[in-house]
Amino acid sequence: MSDEVALGAHEKAGKTAPRHPFVALLLSVCPGLGQQYAGHLVRGIILYIILIIVSWLAAIAFMYVESRISIVLLAVPFIGMVAIAADAWWCASKQPQEYRLKWFNRPVIYAAVFLFLLMTVNPLMDMLIGGNVVRAFPVTSSSMAPTVLKNDLLVINKLAEPGRGDVVLLDYRGDNVSSRFSDVIDVELFNRIINSLFGENEIPYKDGQLVRRIIAVPGDTVEIREGNVVVNGKKLDEPYL
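Now predict its structure.
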């Protein structure tokens, strides 16, 4: 109780300064800081956390909505930021001209709160959702051009079971291709085949990524007949080429 009284007395005797809606709007480049500037610290923190969670949920929904309308889901983070900025403007405009500055109305506190959220909420959501559900990968390989080009952005659904015709991305940057696949392939034969097909600077997995389309699944029989790929006795139909 004594701490609350002391804090209240400090705020009562503190300086006053108007809250400018335009400043709150600018601070909303970092979602939630505009609310903090306008005197609503907890509100800003809650809105920031909601934005992160909803953005991840939208990314997950995007993977399962088979419609062109699903592209709207990718705009959810931007729509959320605009809504939070508008709320910050509104909060600042409602404060009196003689707004009494609170303990958190200081640049160093603004920075501390933002960095705390950035280093806790973001990594936690990235670990839970990005590591197990959905993640966006920038493509660093040209191994599947022109279908997938270098620098394209792939949204990977980690919950899906790959099937025929699906495009998959193997990402093993920092790992050795031989140690990764040694239990399922003849590494020496694999390297000889790859080296015969590509030049030294063209090896598709050299940069740590390999993008490929699945043509067969466990139990299928794959053959090469007269230069054609045959799966389960039928010539592979590749209309996407």
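Residues 41-64 form the longest helix (24 residues).
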